[in-house]
From TrEMBL:
<dbReference type="Pfam" id="PF00278">
    <property type="entry name" value="Orn_DAP_Arg_deC"/>
</dbReference>
<dbReference type="GO" id="GO:0004586">
    <property type="term" value="F:ornithine decarboxylase activity"/>
</dbReference>
<dbReference type="InterPro" id="IPR029066">
    <property type="entry name" value="PLP-binding_barrel"/>
</dbReference>
<dbReference type="GO" id="GO:0005737">
    <property type="term" value="C:cytoplasm"/>
</dbReference>
<feature type="modified residue" description="N6-(pyridoxal phosphate)lysine">
    <location>
        <position position="65"/>
    </location>
</feature>
<feature type="domain" description="Orn/DAP/Arg decarboxylase 2 N-terminal">
    <location>
        <begin position="42"/>
        <end position="275"/>
    </location>
</feature>
<keyword id="KW-0456">Lyase</keyword>
<dbReference type="InterPro" id="IPR022653">
    <property type="entry name" value="De-COase2_pyr-phos_BS"/>
</dbReference>
<keyword id="KW-0663">Pyridoxal phosphate</keyword>
<keyword id="KW-0620">Polyamine biosynthesis</keyword>
<comment type="function">
    <text>Catalyzes the first and rate-limiting step of polyamine biosynthesis that converts ornithine into putrescine, which is the precursor for the polyamines, spermidine and spermine. Polyamines are essential for cell proliferation and are implicated in cellular processes, ranging from DNA replication to apoptosis.</text>
</comment>
<dbReference type="InterPro" id="IPR022644">
    <property type="entry name" value="De-COase2_N"/>
</dbReference>
<dbReference type="Pfam" id="PF02784">
    <property type="entry name" value="Orn_Arg_deC_N"/>
</dbReference>
<protein>
    <recommendedName>
        <fullName>ornithine decarboxylase</fullName>
        <ecNumber>4.1.1.17</ecNumber>
    </recommendedName>
</protein>
<dbReference type="InterPro" id="IPR022643">
    <property type="entry name" value="De-COase2_C"/>
</dbReference>
<comment type="pathway">
    <text>Amine and polyamine biosynthesis; putrescine biosynthesis via L-ornithine pathway; putrescine from L-ornithine: step 1/1.</text>
</comment>
<comment type="similarity">
    <text>Belongs to the Orn/Lys/Arg decarboxylase class-II family.</text>
</comment>
Length: 472
C-alpha cells in the first residue's frame, strides 16, 4: 500500500525515550500550542498478546467505531485481527488498507439499504440482524449473506448499555427469527450478543453463551449449519483494568457449551485494544481566579483553567462514553493544593472537562496530560467553534518495529528510525518536510510576574474603597 504524506509515520524510539519524554519534548519545543496525542502502538501489541494468552480460542474482530485511526487499523491488521464494521464508510476504510472482505463482520443489526447493497458489492457477506424487517431487507438486497442473529443479554453494570437499542429476546424473539429466516431461505450461520461496552459483570458472558447454545441447537433442528459464535464487546482496556475474570468466565462457558472446535468463536473488542494506547496533552491558554468567601474577599477559593481541547473535541467521551478523566500536570509543582476546575476552549458553558479537582497553582502555557484517551474520543471529535482535532503522533520501541516492519499492510516506509523526539518536535509528516501545521504564530504574553498570582496573596489589582468628603 502506498503511504501518503497525510499519514503520520511511526517513530521508533531509542532506549532513552518513552511516551512521556516525547510529550515533554513536543510541549517544551516552544512552537507547539495545540493539543496533541501520542499513540504508543507497542501498547496495542501488548494488548493483543494478552488477548491471545487469556482467550486463545476467541478471534478478535476490532470494533472500528471505537477508534478508526488509520495507524491503529494498520497495526491491528498486521497482527492478524479481524474487523467489526458498522457502516459502508468503515468497510471502505478497512478494505482500503488491503484487508480481505472475509475478515470483516458487518455488525450493525439495523443497516440502511444502501449500506447492505455496498456490503454485497464489496463481498462483505457476514452481517448481524435482530429483527424481522432486517431479515427481509437482507433477503432482498444481499440474499447470499451469512446472517448472524443478535440476541440481548445485558450486563448488570456496563459503561455503555446497548440492550435498550439492539438485540432480540433470546427466549421468545430469536426462535421466531430463526423460523422466518428459514422461510425466507436465508443462511443463518451463527448467534451474536453484546453485553454492553465496558462490562463490569463477568458472569453475564456465561448467561449469554448458554442462550446461544440453545439457539444453536434450534438452528440445527431447522436445517441450518451454524458455525459462528460472536461474543461481542465489553472488554475494559484502561490502565489498571484486566480481562482476567471475563476471560475465565468465557473459557469455562465455552468448554461447557461449545467444547468442540467446529464452532468458530469471535469477539468485538474495541476499548480493550486502544484505550490505554493514546495519551492526550493539553495546554492552559487562559486562567481565572475565583474569590467567593465574603469573609475573606482577597483569598482565592477556586481556580478555573481553560485548555485547548474540550467536550466538543477529545473529551466528548465524558458525554457519550460516561468516561472519567484524571488531569496530570506535566510540570511538577509545589505549594498549596487548591480547588480547581478545567474547561474546554469553546464558548459553550457545557464545555467542562473536570468539575472539581485539587491542583497546585499552574501558569498559562503549562501542560496537562490525560491518559487512557484512546476509546470513543477521536472518531466523535468535532471542530466546533473552529478548534482543531488534536494531531496524533505515533511511536514504538525497537522490538515493536522489528515485529511489524514487514507485516502487511505495514512496511519499512511506515517507520522512522533515529533520535525520534527531536524529529517529532518538528511535526514532520511521512514525507519528512511538511511543517505547516506546526508553524504557529507566537503570542506575546505579558511578563510572567504580571500573569502569576498567588492563591494566598492579595492581587495587585484589588483595592479598598473608602468614602471621602467632596473636594471643592
Amino acid at each position: 500500500m502506498k503511504v501518503t504524506n497525510c499519514d503520520e509515520r511511526i517513530h521508533v524510539l531509542d532506549s532513552s525515550a518513552d511516551v512521556m519524554t516525547v510529550i515533554r519534548d513536543i510541549s517544551n519545543s516552544g512552537v507547539q500550542e495545540e493539543a496533541f496525542y501520542v499513540l504508543d502502538i507497542g501498547d496495542i501489541v501488548r494488548k493483543h498478546q494478552i488477548w491471545k494468552e487469556k482467550l486463545p480460542r476467541v478471534e478478535p474482530y476490532y470494533a472500528v467505531k471505537c477508534n478508526d485511526n488509520l495507524t491503529v487499523l494498520e497495526v491491528l491488521a498486521a497482527l492478524g485481527v479481524g474487523f467489526d464494521c458498522a457502516s459502508k464508510s468503515e468497510i471502505n476504510k478497512v478494505l482500503g488498507i488491503g484487508i480481505d472482505s472475509s475478515r470483516i463482520i458487518f455488525a450493525n443489526p439495523t443497516k440502511p439499504a444502501s449500506h447492505i447493497r455496498h456490503a454485497s458489492a464489496m463481498g462483505v457477506d457476514t452481517m448481524t440482524a435482530d429483527n424481522e424487517s432486517e431479515l427481509h431487507k437482507i433477503k432482498k438486497l444481499h440474499p447470499v449473506a451469512k446472517v448472524v442473529i443478535r440476541i440481548r443479554c445485558d450486563a448488570e453494570v456496563a459503561q455503555c448499555p446497548l440492550g435498550m437499542k439492539f438485540g432480540c429476546d433470546p427466549t421468545h424473539e430469536a426462535p421466531k427469527l430463526l423460523h422466518i429466516a428459514r422461510m425466507l431461505g436465508l443462511n443463518v450461520v451463527g448467534i451474536s450478543f453484546h453485553v454492553g461496552s465496558g462490562c463490569q459483570d463477568p458472569p453475564v458472558f456465561q448467561r449469554a453463551i448458554r442462550h446461544a447454545r440453545v439457539l444453536f441447537n434450534l438452528a440445527l433442528d431447522l436445517g441450518f449449519k451454524p458455525y459462528l459464535l460472536d461474543l461481542g464487546g465489553g472488554y475494559p482496556g484502561a490502565t489498571g483494568t484486566s480481562i482476567d475474570k471475563i476471560a475465565e468466565v468465557i473459557n469455562e462457558a465455552l468448554m461447557e457449551c461449545f467444547p468442540t472446535e467446529d464452532v468458530h468463536v469471535i469477539a468485538e473488542p474495541g476499548r480493550f485494544y486502544v484505550a490505554s494506547a493514546f495519551t492526550l496533552a493539553t495546554s492552559i491558554h487562559s486562567k481565572r481566579y475565583v474569590r467567593q468567601d465574603p469573609t475573606s474577599p482577597n483569598t482565592v477559593t477556586h481556580v478555573m483553567y481553560y485548555i485547548n481541547d474540550g467536550v466538543y473535541g477529545s473529551f466528548n467521551c465524558l458525554l457519550y462514553d460516561h468516561q472519567r478523566v484524571t488531569p496530570l500536570p506535566l510540570k511538577k509543582a509545589c505549594g498549596k493544593m487548591i480547588q480547581s476546575s478545567i474547561w474546554g476552549p469553546t464558548c459553550d458553558g457545557l464545555d467542562q472537562v473536570v468539575e472539581n479537582v485539587l491542583l497546585q497553582d499552574m501558569d498559562l502555557g503549562e501542560w496537562i496530560i490525560f491518559e487512557n484517551m484512546g476509546a470513543y474520543t477521536l472518531p466523535v471529535a468535532s471542530q466546533f467553534n473552529g478548534f482543531p482535532v488534536p494531531k496524533v503522533h505515533v511511536v514504538a520501541d525497537e522490538s515493536v518495529w522489528l515485529l511489524l516492519k514487514d507485516a502487511f499492510p505495514l512496511t519499512e516506509d511506515h517507520f522512522v528510525i533515529g533520535n525520534t523526539p527531536a524529529t517529532l518536535r518538528l511535526g514532520l509528516d511521512i514525507g519528512g518536510t511538511n511543517m505547516d501545521t506546526w508553524n504557529n504564530s507566537g503570542i506575546d504574553l505579558a511578563p510572567p510576574e504580571m500573569l502569576a498570582a498567588s492563591p494566598v496573596a492579595t492581587a495587585s489589582f484589588l483595592y479598598d474603597y473608602v468614602d471621602v468628603d467632596r473636594i471643592d
